[in-house]
């Protein structure tokens, strides 16, 4: 079911009209659909039901505890990148043995916390990090269940800022250094090498890039098994894209087919780390037009949400769909949709057609569930905005509006 649809001309989240939320919670705010979260989880997990596979939600995409809990209640594990995300996942009720710990540079304190919690796996990103993980585990009298994140040197063909699978990026262990890493895994008593992990980037549209990376991974498993390593796990990372603003995408089944074809018959336990695919289209940023400004060259619709609330357009040139909350059939004059922050980059996009929308009207910025609230800041003295969860006929505030006074209270 599409969570955000017009009913009687009003945009709704599940069965709740967005103006009701705007009235009761205020704007701007994030609105998530629990129904959509659950549907997305099921759609992701189902094609892998015949494999021994675990879907670990990449908490970084939307770390609200209620969101993690909703996915965990469907069976999701968690992929975390910090002690903060680990604490959130545990608090939300994710079983430790369903948690994988990614992240470029884990501190000793984070490794200790993860090992004490008994998590499923730590993904090591480098040889020096392997040494530290080994030391910490040994000092606790434990062996760390380890996967090596390999850098397969595969282009992801996504935005360069979220491309991670090529040599020259900071991520993973290069294939040339893998022999050294494998040797170390064998000799350090604190390490229990289970397998490999790969994550070549985020928001991938062409599944052939996954095919190349997973194919290389499968070859590595075969090669290292021949050399006597018992490799029982593969973590395939995240990265599956979603359509933004009218893009079309190959069906998810095609991605699943790539997985089955490349690594399906290795007898490995699989893990996935999807973020965007689970939460991206399950959230909108609900915002009001403050001013309809007709400039000499252009018309601007200035929203009460800004780049501090949703940074994706400014940071990755992302273009999200923007819909009027009240449907209208009139012709529209194109407008640039901007925020109130004092930067030219506080621009959601140019030449949007928003029929019937003017000063005071509500609009929804779609596909805002992933890396929206997660990346928000208080820039320009703008406090973090509320998050709301809609579940069918009801809704609740899952993060309250944080006042400036509270924020000031944390300072000095
Ligand atoms: N696993 C690892 C190791 C990752 O680094 C990431 C994302 C994921 C999983 C989840 O990837 P996803 O399934 O969501 O593509 N802020 C950017 C995206 C950054 C992604 C960082 N890593 C954006 O708004 O597009």
Q: Can you walk through the features of this model?
A:
With about 400 residues, the protein is α/β, with parallel strands linked by helices. It folds into two domains: about 5-30 and about 280-410, Lyase, Ornithine Decarboxylase, Chain A, domain 1; about 35-280, TIM Barrel (Alpha-Beta Barrel). The protein is about 30% helix and about 25% strand. The protein is built from twelve helices and 21 strands. It has helices spanning about 20-25, 35-45, 65-70, 85-90, 110-115, 125-140, 180-185, 205-225, 250-265, 275-280, 310-315, 405-410, and strands at about 5, 10-15, 15, 30-35, 55-60, 75-80, 100, 120-125, 145-150, 175, 190-195, 235, 270, 285-295, 300-305, 320-325, 335-340, 345-350, 360-365, 385-390, 395-400. Strands 4, 14, 15, 16, 17, 18, 19, 20 and 21 form a nine-stranded mixed sheet that branches. Strands 5-6-7-8-9-11-12-13 form an eight-stranded parallel beta barrel, surrounded by six helices. A three-stranded antiparallel sheet has the order 1-2-3. Helix 3 (about 65-70) links the parallel strand 5 (about 55-60) and strand 6 (about 75-80). The protein is elongated. The N and C termini lie far apart (about 50 Å). The model has no long low-confidence stretch (mean pLDDT about 95). Ligand LLP binds next to helix 10 and helix 11. Ligand LLP binds near residues 238 and 277.
